[in-house]
Amino acid sequence: MLETFQELAPSMQIGLILLVLVACAYLLLPLVIKATLKHNADPSLDIFDPEITPIPQAAVEFFESTAREMEQVGFSIVEYVLVPDLVPDAIAVVMLFVNPMEQDQAIAAVIWGFTEQEDAKKISVRNDHVEFSTEFDDGSEIGTTNNTVEGAFAPVSHKTLLQFSDIKRPSRLYRVHQRAVEELAAGKKKRRLPPTEQLVEQLKQDLIKEFYDQIATGFLYLDSTQQYYLPTFKGAYLICWKQMWPITSVRRALRRRRATRLLREWDIDFSGIGSPMSSSDA
Length: 282
What we know:
Low-confidence stretches: 272-280
Structural class: alpha+beta
Number of domains: 1
Keywords: Membrane, Transmembrane, Transmembrane helix
Largest sheet: 7 strands, mixed
Helix content: 25-40%
Mean pLDDT: 87
Transmembrane segments: 12-33
């Protein structure tokens, strides 16, 4: 076999080596995911005051600009919620919003992680996004987000999640969400929001349900201690593969194509104030 390899042209040798490396990555990296990925089955949700509890400056700026826009479209802030233990080495802060007139709710989330650096931990913001959500009496739900990260879990039948990652301004994203509700849930009755004092607990239950729903898909299972949702072998491979090149690039391109098509079908045009599918929308 070695002699056959040596007889190949240098370009073919390089190509073969790269192919073997990619194959090894596709086979071995999911095993790392299987061994390390875990989601807390009972995460802590702690209400806090951002003026007292310090958070990264990038998160402060994101929340301030988001809050201004959300107020313009009828949303008010319910609470700031810290989620410190959903997954290892990452912390999430969530602004919880409601629009009582429309019976819609929304979150603005910032997730950051820690890296060890010279005997100290360096904070790095990994992701920030806004998501609007409308639930209906039949148990279905429509969510509209500008999250730039491709989803890793399997879709579930009761939730339609639309992703417009290039629409950065919440006011414009909410316009898209309202149209999505009109088009995709015609005739359905919105479920009334729970009382304000129950909204944080409802957020926690919704978060846990995201993981619980993945048991039926075969992606996750609840460990014997019932403390963590862990990936099955099927889940580990599919979660990992969905985030790897070139699959993630193909998924991103298809998702953007779908977003563009929906905006065109719904006759939503942000031209003149920033293209709906470009970074100028920020």
